[in-house]
Amino acid sequence: MLLLAGMLMIGACASQQPTNLKPPPLLIAGPEVHVPDVDVLAVSPAMDEFLRRYILKYRDLHTRLTLLMDAVSGNGVLGFEYDDSLTLTSVEAFDARAGNCIGFANMLIALARRAGLKANYQEVIRRPEWSSREDVVLLVKHINVVLEHSGYTYVMDVSGIHTNPNVRRRVIGDDYAKSLYLNNIAVDALIKNDLPTAYAYMVKAIKEEPLLTDSWVNMGVLLSRNDQLDDAALVLLKALEIDNYEYAALSNLYEVYISQEDLESAAQLADKVEAYRQKNPYYLLHLSEEALEQARFEDSIKLLRRAIRTNKSDHLLHFALAKAQYLSGETEAAQSSLSRARELAPESMLAHYDRPLGELVAEQESETNQ
Question: Fewer beta carbons within 10 Å, N or C terminal of the chain?
Answer without folding.
Answer: C
